[in-house]
C-alpha cells in the first residue's frame, strides 16, 4: 500500500511486527512470533531485520525495565526515546517510517548477522517463531533458534568498515567493555559505560522491522517493534 502526506514522500507501508507478539524472560531470552507471510505478498525482497546496539554498564541486573535505562546507561534511555514515536502504529501516526533505517543508522544501530548463514534468507518468511537465547551460562555464545535450527549470533562489522573487538560474538570481555575500543574503527556498535565503574557488564537492545524494496529499489521498513534488552554472559 502506498501512503502520502503533505511534505512527506510517498512510501510503501509494511505491516509491522506487533509488540504483543514479543515475550522476554528476564534479560536472557526473547521470543518473537513473526506475522503471516501473506501480509507481504506484494513486497519485493521481503525479510525481517533485527537492529541492535550494545551498552556497557556498571550495573548488574537480572532483569531490565524501562525505569532502569537511564541508570544502566544514559545513551540507552536516549535511544529508546528517539525510537519511541516510530513505534506508533495507530492510524493517526504521521511519522514517515520509510526513514526508519536512516534513524537507526544515525543512532549507531547495526543489523544483526549470523555466523554461518545469511540472516536475510533465514528471516525471509513469516508464520514462525524465533528465539534470541542469551542464557547466562559462562562461555555460552548467544544464538537464534528458528524452525528447529540454531544459529550463532554475529555482531556487525559495518560491511567491513570496522573490526569488532575482540571478535564478533555477543559476549562480555575486557576488549568489548574497554572505552578506548568504542570507536568507529573497532567497536562502533558499543556504547561505553558512564563514569569509571569497578565492574563492567554489557547489555544489548534489539528492535525488529519488516524490510523490503520499493519500486525505486530503495530499502523500506515497517514501524519498528521493540524486542527488549538482553544481557551478555
- Cα(first) to Cα(last) distance is 42 Å
Rounded mean pLDDT score? 91
Structural class: mainly beta
Rg measurement, Å: 17 Å
Secondary-structure element string: EEEEEHHHEEHEEEHEEEE
Strand order of the largest sheet: 3-4-8-9-10-7
Percent of residues in helices? 10-25%
Residue runs with pLDDT of under 50 for 5 or more positions: 1-10
Largest sheet: 6 strands, antiparallel
The percentage of residues in β strands lies in 25-35%
Instruction: Tell me how many strands there are.
Output: 14
Number of helices: 5
Q: Which word captures the global form?
A: globular
Q: Any chance you could write out the topology, listing elements then pairs?
A:
Elements: E1 2-5, E2 8-12, E3 22-25, E4 29-33, E5 44-57, H1 69-72, H2 74-83, H3 100-106, E6 110-111, E7 113-114, H4 119-122, E8 129-133, E9 143-146, E10 149-154, H5 174-177, E11 190-191, E12 201-213, E13 219-221, E14 225-231
Parallel strand pairs: 5-11
Antiparallel strand pairs: 1-2, 3-4, 4-8, 5-6, 5-12, 7-10, 8-9, 9-10, 12-13, 12-14
Amino acid at each position: 500500500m502506498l501512503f502520502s502526506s503533505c511534505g512527506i514522500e510517498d512510501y510503501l507501508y509494511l505491516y509491522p511486527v506487533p509488540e504483543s507478539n514479543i515475550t522476554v524472560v528476564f534479560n536472557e531470552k526473547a521470543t518473537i512470533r513473526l506475522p503471516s507471510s501473506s501480509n507481504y505478498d506484494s513486497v519485493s525482497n521481503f525479510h525481517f531485520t533485527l537492529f541492535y546496539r550494545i551498552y556497557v554498564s556498571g550495573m548488574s541486573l537480572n532483569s531490565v525495565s524501562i525505569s532502569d535505562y537511564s541508570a544502566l546507561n544514559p545513551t540507552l534511555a536516549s535511544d529508546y526515546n528517539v525510537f519511541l514515536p516510530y513505534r506508533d502504529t495507530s492510524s493517526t501516526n504521521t511519522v514517515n517510517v520509510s526513514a526508519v533505517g536512516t534513524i537507526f543508522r544515525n543512532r549507531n544501530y547495526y543489523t544483526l548477522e549470523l555466523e554461518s548463514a545469511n540472516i536475510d534468507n533465514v528471516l525471509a518468511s513469516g508464520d514462525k517463531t524465533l528465539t534470541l537465547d542469551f542464557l547466562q551460562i559462562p562461555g555460552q555464545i548467544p544464538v537464534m533458534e528458528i524452525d528447529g535450527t540454531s544459529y550463532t549470533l554475529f555482531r556487525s562489522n559495518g560491511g567491513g568498515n570496522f573490526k569488532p573487538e575482540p571478535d564478533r560474538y555477543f559476549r562480555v570481555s575486557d576488549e568489548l567493555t574497554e572505552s578506548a575500543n568504542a570507536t568507529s574503527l573497532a567497536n562502533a556498535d558499543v556504547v561505553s559505560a558512564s563514569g569509571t565503574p569497578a565492574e563492567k557488564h554489557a547489555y544489548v537492545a534489539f528492535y525488529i522491522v519488516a524490510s523490503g524494496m520499493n519500486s525505486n529499489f530503495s530499502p523500506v521498513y515497517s514501524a519498528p517493534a521493540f524486542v527488549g534488552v538482553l544481557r551478555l554472559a
